[in-house]
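Hello,

Our lab assistant flagged a job as stuck in the queue for most of the afternoon. It eventually completed. Since we weren't sure the result was trustworthy after the delay, we are filing this so someone can double-check. Below is the sequence as submitted and the structure that was eventually returned. Let us know if re-running is recommended.
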Amino acid sequence: MRTDQHQQKIAFVDRRSFPRLPAAVGAARDWAARTLTQTGGTEEQAFTCALLVGELATNAVQHAAGETFEVTVWSSGAVDVRDGSFTKPEARSSGEEDEDGRGLQLVVGLSRHVELIQLSDGKIIRFWL
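-- returned structure --
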């Protein structure tokens, strides 16, 4: 995962905050996929977007600080998940019986590019479809 900002210009589409609760993961996933589709994204991109937002939102709910996390959709097919954690996510090895630990691997494997943007109040994980 690169930690510098991607050079491609992107235009803002929409942003929404969600409560940092397990029940909000599905709402964030569905909102991001629907928003991407409304801006011209394909059904395949929307499916991938939903999966990756679900993984990153789950990480935000389980590991971040604060009461909310935020999802932003950009016109270029970039999607941000912002949370209140300063910890850089690390890909982990997971055994066949493990129920978690594969989220970041999915994000890296299914997106064209992933970047970490450190902020004064947390971080953004941006992936490009």
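-- support follow-up --
The delay was a queue issue, not a problem with the job. The result is valid. The beta strands are 12-19, 68-74, 78-83, 113-119, 122-128. DSSP finds three helices and five strands in the chain.
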